[in-house]
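Z., the sequence and structure:
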Amino acid sequence: FRQIEVTHHDYDAPKGHWKKSKICRDNIKINYFLKGDISVFINDSCYRPVCGDICFLPPAQIHCGLVESESHLDYFQLDVGVQAFDHICGGKELLYELISCINGQFFVHPKSEENGKLSQLFYRLESAVMQNNKVLAFAYTVEILMLIQKCYGYSSGISSVVLSKTTKWIIDYIKAHYQEKITVSQLSEMLGFSATHLSAVFKKEVGMSIHAYLTEYRVMRSAEYLKDHSIADTCYLCGFYDSSHFIAAFKKRFNCTPAVYKKQFTYENKLKHL
């Protein structure tokens, strides 16, 4: 695994914690964000990734990050050496085509279908590495790169602006109250703006509607709850009051039902302890 390294960062980060400025030397760095409130600085631009965003950094790229307030961060980091696939037919071309298609567009927010597949692939890659299964690890890495190339092919990326106070407040409110009923009308009354204005500002800055972000966040939290709770309890704990809506949203995000996901997690967890 000298040419491929995947790490899963899941921890409570204190306010003001800077990650030292780093440079990608002879490797590409891919971050897949699951949860957290962090600012990422690349060149002179500041990005505020949200759930499901991908950050792709080519070789020789300097970057750093800042946690502005106490936050629980959860993201995957995949480092791939530029010579990792030289021995695989078409592998080198895939890597360099992907690097060339980025062209300064460091962040992208995939569609729900691709996002679901990416989530599965990153967890499977992590499992393969833990089992020291090099064949599967390389296979999953190639799948991830091909899928990311597809995502960059259709997306215009996310804007390199710091979120407004209003949008940040909405995101923080959703993270604190996702188990409760939340509507755009309710948020507009609390903030003193019209629902139309609120929705337009949020979508422009985040790249998705308030409702879509709320659903996305609930589904991502549900994947955690499923590890230790039943499907019915998870549905309720994550703010889904309709099981059919929960199952449909989960399947759209992870490309499988909650039952299949829970069964797969249980199986992989057993493998880790063999």
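The CA atoms of residues 26 and 59 lie 6 Å apart. The radius of gyration is 19 Å.

Let me know what you think.
H.
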